[in-house]
Design goal:
Elements lengths: L1 E2 L6 H9 L6 H8 L4 E5 L4 E3 L7 E7 L2 E6 L5 E7 L18 E4 L3 E7 H10 L1 H27 L2 H18 L14 H8 L3 H13 L2
């Protein structure tokens, strides 16, 4: 893990929140004033671990990040994928201890924003409060769809739904080209997210490719 010298990220945060709500010039200036500590991580590294007492929120600047838990037998359940511009641990603003881990799937760069600065921005600008609140509601809605997938959808339905979900999210952030996007994860990681074996994931992907 290395600390980056140049702190990018404010524009990515503003772009993400403007996908959710219109921000005034004043609100954008407040967001640009947030202090960011930029750090780089290799693939498969923890950013925050379950049980940590966190004092910052994580803004993804580049790469691909997941939220996950490890069950007693050592298996991992991925509970969400996060793209540049996402803040996957907004819940930490109100959690004394993290109840899940946040880790990278590929080399990634993140910015840490102090909780106290996020709280101050929210207090000063109701629009920022609304944007952050709506972002957590959207995240919760996505999570509910994942729960339906794990409980009721076929393997084909789970994979197809996730690929469509990510396409919509990448497109909203301007990260698609001609309707396509790069998904930098392995079939094993898809299996960890969807409760499927790698063999099963591979078979379904082959079927979807064959059907174009």
């Amino acid at each position: 893990m290395n600390e980056a010298r140049t702190p990018p990220g404010h524009d990515q945060l503003i772009r993400k929140l403007e996908c959710i709500i219109d921000l005034s010039d004043e609100e954008k200036e407040v967001l640009r004033g947030l202090p960011l500590t930029v750090r780089s991580f290799g693939a498969d590294q923890d950013i925050v671990r379950e049980g940590d007492r966190s004092s910052t929120c994580t803004l993804v600047l580049s790469g691909f990040v997941c939220r996950y838990k490890v069950v007693p037998d050592g298996k991992r359940q991925i509970m969400g994928f996060y793209l540049p511009g996402d803040i996957p641990d907004l819940q930490s603003l109100h959690l004394q201890f993290m109840d899940h881990s946040l880790g990278t799937l590929v080399p990634s760069t993140i910015a840490q924003i102090p909780h106290e600065s996020v709280h101050a921005a929210a207090r000063s600008c109701p629009g920022i409060t609304a944007a952050l609140w709506r972002d957590t509601l959207i995240d919760a809605a996505i999570f509910r769809e994942w729960m339906i997938g794990l409980g009721r959808r076929s393997a084909r339905g789970r994979i197809a739904h996730l690929l469509c979900e990510l396409q919509v999210r990448f497109r909203a952030l301007g990260l698609t080209s001609d309707g396509t996007y790069e998904l930098p994860i392995t079939q094993a990681e898809l299996g960890d997210a969807l409760g499927l074996s790698t063999v099963h994931v591979n078979r379904v992907l082959q079927e979807l490719r064959a059907e174009n």
